Request: fold
Amino acid sequence: MSIAAVVIGRNEGARLVACLAALKGKVQPLIYVDSGSTDGSVAAAQQAGAQVVSLDMSQPFTAARARNAGLAALGDQTSFVQLLDGDCVIRDGWLETAQRYLHENPKAAVVCGRRRERHPDASVYNALIDDEWNTPCGPAQACGGDAMMRLAALREVGGYRDQMIAGEEPELCLRLRHKGWQIWRLDAEMTWHDADLTRFGQWWQRCRRAGHAYAEGAALHGRGPDHLWVGETRRALLWGLALPLYTLLSSLFVTHWALALLLLYPVQILRLAARKNLNWAFFTTLGKFAEALGVLQYYVARLMGRKSRLIEYK
Reply:
């Protein structure tokens, strides 16, 4: 049974070349969806033997729309498809492992493995992302951008939600689970990922995008039995907006002693550090301010009757 692959990207350069080279001869067809690259990515993909789909950039870009375009190009040529970002490289043995699991478990719609940062020591932000990818093995609620999926299951739920600018995979997986499908995280090496996050501003934007995803996911499915991202949205608003705003107003109009409320932040950091480590706890707490901005961006756009544009961090 053949495996197809859909790779999405924009201006990934040498990372895309490495991504496609690792797939060549292992998948059929190999589809690359380009989102307005100006660095020769289209020519590089064609040279690598990939079928290129160029998105209409007159419409707002989302990764979800790119993946759907790639899936549409597959037709009925295959049963399983490996979804991959252009800054990732598939690991040896993963395709066979994932295909075998899907073949042996007909209720499984999605399987993913361990995604690792190629350069976790390059920055504190890369290290945080590498840790973020290390999710528990076994039945899962969701996957990330890299995963092998059963094409019939994807089509049953209508694929990705085109207009979501972030968090499209968990939202897709929720709809799959509601249809009785299963998501599995296998104890196997899946991909190398090159986040290339070296600046604070990049990390901040990534957290802001996460906040937007939380708010949109909660708006779509927060009232259902899964309460998708309701807690995450509330925590972002509490720590990133409500507490600092209440502290500021209270100190200005009631008493300067209200500034003591800011001591809740180091207390929260120490509490979280007991669960993992101090570095993770500090950035998790700090990230709530960026997440709150993302939540507000979603709410403001919704109030004005428009969709948010992509929040990019590279």
The chain has eleven helices and nine strands. Residues 3-198 form a domain with the Spore Coat Polysaccharide Biosynthesis Protein SpsA; Chain A fold (CATH 3.90.550.10). The mean pLDDT is 94.
